[in-house]
Specification:
Four copies of one chain form a homotetramer.
Chain A: E1 2-5, H1 11-23, E2 27-32, E3 37-42, H2 50-54, E4 59-63, E5 83-85, E6 88-90, E7 96-100, H3 107-120, E8 124-126, H4 144-157, E9 161-164, H5 171-177, E10 180-183, H6 191-198, E11 204-207, H7 214-226, E12 232-236, H8 254-261, E13 266-268, H9 270-274, H10 277-290, E14 294-298, H11 316-332
Parallel strand pairs in A: 7-8, 7-14, 8-9, 9-10, 10-11, 11-12, 12-13
Antiparallel strand pairs in A: 1-3, 1-4, 2-3, 5-6
Chain lengths: 337, 337, 337, 337
């Protein structure tokens, strides 16, 4: 950490800061130019709260040299994290596809979609039971019944299931019934929920908040990991920008950036990123090409009558042909699919 | 609601959509030009799920004529909402000032700040007990003990207290001890928490999410109101943009926009918007000038040693002089302060 | 075009608007519900200025059914535009690679880079002679001399050249010496310059402005085409968002969106989008996978001593290996490369 | 300037960087911790190109201690710049109001508006003759004739005139006929135009680009000043964000930030920021309260028939009442109006 002092800081204040840093166990290297005066801190700086330092009116700037995340940091964990769920593996050289409808609507719907995506080669079944909706008047999901229907679909196809948890009070039920617990974009900053799922040992699929920086995204993963659960899968699903032709702007660059700085697997959700079904296929291919570890795709047998997100869902036949294209690309990209 | 159909939509599909709309209780006015074909829906359109309609591949566009919020809508509630807390009033022609430290740190700290802001004319004491922090390694607040210290400060000064709730599990304690319950920006999309505080009758101070549109902000208020709690105070605290000189970009225009479309009181938090103490004063004045119903300001007796947000906190003396300026402006703005 | 009137618009005002629209040659279909009153306009609406209509205080909303661009619109020109420059073709099923340094620095530099990229299979040589720089104190390019050096490099390698034009006064020189004239992101809204290059017949490489929507980008192309020059190549180079790990956020979705709505070729500049050399390769592959018509890549033999943009330039050896990967992918994507 | 080196940088590379910096006339203070290695540069660092340094793969970060602008920097010019135009003064303790229609449409229109705003107390008349429009098919202004009509309006009212210049080729005419030359938001990055107006001695009203940071805005002013013209007035007119209820998001915080870092006068354009006439009044007051040096407001006698921007124009009567409110506020704000 480097502290840049304001020009003309009184000697007395300089001493105060020095003493404080030394009392926190850091050595100080002072460096003084015509236009600046700075301290380079040597030693363990983890006890220093950067915000508190910046509140000092004599501190002009504070420069972090290291990333603020530790457990999610590739620096301290150079190998890719590999997450195993039943017979499936996520991360490493694998390319994992999670597919299914936005919402679970009926036993017939979820089992028939599950069968079709299974045939096409999907690895996991997704389906929302508890739905975070912008309007309190929109369909909020089948709730507990939705989970039961997912379990039936799993029984019939063998596909492990992924579904979203919104409330700390439901954690136990999800641990029992769900294979991967999803934390949605709207709850990426819900730290109480993150801590809660940090205390269990189910894999967590964490979606990037719609205005979260890459660093904040990794800090949210850190919240989960710091409580003991290291099985975190990150999911890029688009960020909010001024461009509103698409529902969100898929931040494709985030994939290689995260893979460089973290060892966690990263997948892409082209359906939510685009919000338009005809963009799912090209974006899914781009995700494969850029080095993602997998995809989460909304598939619906009857999008026009879907209870949610029909506009961004593709039909099983299109999903099947997309899977075939991806399998061809996987060879060039050295991915197991 | 207006449905614009894609050019060349087959007659059969047109009939299907017509029948569906009629079955939902709407009459249809058809309008056809060379380049478009549209249905204007007459009657109660609240049973129509816009997302489902848009999923129909023959629907080009869907145009809402009415706002999606009802209880928060000024159209159905033309009078300003006035919220009473002990002897204080929020909304209507009042200008309410909530002040205090970011975090409650000790009895001495919170009571001394409370006394000073009381003298300067503040109406409420704020202070964080449960703190949402980007890093799991940062100070997370004094938790329950923080609430106890706030109660002591209230006892000594008479100032009712405002503090943030992060977890549905804590609602009961907050109902007992707190005068206004704050829902932070990071939880504006945490619908389970919104529903929870919708079922109580304490006033809720709802902060705008950092990437929430004005409409989504009002929909979050609607979540609370739809459960029965109509005492919602909205708080603009800056949105995230490409400009990062300031921590956030204060969306000053949001105040008159919200006041036009909603009857709820709207206050401004210049401290979080700017992230820099020397911007608090000019932004607070701008908030008064633009028509806000009040302010929430971070005040700390020793910002350089504050446990959080010291960089954006002003000292009691500066707060006092700001209050004097605001009182002068209040006369021109026809506000009671 | 659909006009939504404000509730309670006086009959007199309704008549005025009706008469005005009819005088402009449009028929009106009126549609009236409980909550709305609207006019659907039938006939040629191109004489109607939407801004003027919206200024009418009785007009609540105005809904455009058609895109505002005509010549760039695929609706009126379903076939892909194919642009020929010497022996090279851009658009259609071709995948075109433009490569070279950010700035032309010396004869030795530009010719040696040109030779290396030629060997690797690049189709065009790029190099800045006139450089738009944020600071007036930064290197502004070799100006006219830079153009001369590009011509020498072209002579030695046969690669046609692409370079940026900043001033209307230089158009004639560029027409004589340059094969494709680039309009940079900073000048995408410089309408006088767009009109100027609309009057010549050289192909124009138009970069997207850093905060331009896809529609505004196509309208900038329309400015050029409306003057008579239909040889426009669009270039997505990242947009400005809150995420600043990368210099810009590559809007990868813009490629399939533009290709659906326009017949013009679209290429991607991963170097400017990312601002970091190690992101160029994955982003270039993503561009191929998403369906782009080509790439523009910064290549420098000595990035650490480049006069500009060294941080985002790759070396010739890496460019060569990237080209090999792209050629493999091109087969799957049905692109000629 | 501070250079942070990557961990494990070879000694040879360290020496290379050291030697280069010393050859550019800087002394180096080295500082080495467990996790970092840095150089603090002492002496004149203006010869160092930061981009070039960052291109060195061994440089982890580069930290500027000083702002990159010099002539616009308050550090080197602590007094407010005061600009005189005929009898009017801009900057210092003055509050200057520029008003008029978006476009000059006819002699009758411009002179009648000029008379009304003059009566209400405006200091300058604005009116567009050359209009930058998103669509090539929209009204582009009366061009040269518009300038002539502005001159007539000036003759009749004595109000000096402000109008936008779009092309370097028109500079001479503008120098002869116009009192303050406006550079629009779309041309803030048009460096050739900035240099051109830097060589004349007319005051320049420079609008912030819609996605320009505050620093880039000041660098655009620096382009003008570096050529010799120090009479620059800055104008905040809103930035582009995800919020699109308003045309742009007025960055009200930018005013006090710019006034702290620069000595140039800063005014606010609430009309373009909001895009909605009913927001002009509250935003104008907020601009006064936050410390702006003036306003630029669109006033039209018949907004519903304005050729451009009618939606954001206010009528003369409303302008008059706004001026009265501002005059009252000016007393509290210590502004001469």
């Amino acid at each position: 950490m480097i502290i840049v002092l304001r020009q003309g800081t009184p000697e007395k204040e300089i001493e105060k800061i020095k003493n404080k840093m030394e009392s926190l166990g850091c050595q100080i290297h002072e460096s003084k130019g015509e236009n600046y005066h700075l301290f380079g801190l040597v030693g363990d700086t983890t006890n220093i709260d950067p915000e508190q330092l910046q509140a000092n009116r004599y501190v002009e700037k504070l420069i972090r040299v290291q990333e603020p995340y530790k457990m999610a940091n590739r620096l301290f964990h150079p190998e890719d994290t590999l997450i195993s769920v039943e017979n499936e593996k996520i991360g490493g050289g694998n390319f994992t596809v999670i597919a299914g409808p936005c919402s679970v609507e009926s036993e017939e719907q979820i089992t028939s979609i599950a069968k079709e995506i299974k045939l096409a080669g999907a690895n996991f079944l997704r389906g929302g039971a508890f739905k975070p909706r912008t309007s309190p008047y929109s369909f909020q999901g089948l709730l507990g019944e939705g989970i039961e229907l997912l379990k039936i679909a799993k029984e019939k196809t063998g596909l492990p299931i992924v579904t979203e948890l919104m409330s700390p009070g439901m954690v136990e039920k999800f641990v029992d019934d769900v294979d991967i617990i999803q934390i949605g974009a709207r709850n990426m900053h819900n730290y109480d929920l993150l801590k809660e799922v940090g205390r269990i040992d189910k894999p967590i699929l964490l979606k990037r908040g719609m205005a979260a920086t890459i660093e904040e995204f990794l800090m949210a993963a850190e919240y989960i990991m710091a409580e003991g659960n290291e099985n975190v899968i990150l999911c890029e699903r688009g960020i909010r920008t001024f461009e509103n032709f698409t529902r969100n702007t898929l931040d494709i660059s985030a994939i290689p950036v995260i893979k460089k700085y973290s060892h966690l697997p990263v997948i892409v959700d082209p359906s939510h990123a685009a919000g338009l079904w005809w963009l799912v296929e090209p974006l899914a291919k781009a995700a494969m090409a850029v080095g993602a570890d997998g995809l989460m795709i909304e598939v619906h047998n009857d999008p026009a009558n879907a209870k949610s997100d029909g506009q961004q869902s593709i039909k099983p036949a299109r999903f099947n042909s997309l899977m075939n294209s991806l399998k061809e690309m996987a060879i060039l990209q050295d991915k197991v699919m």
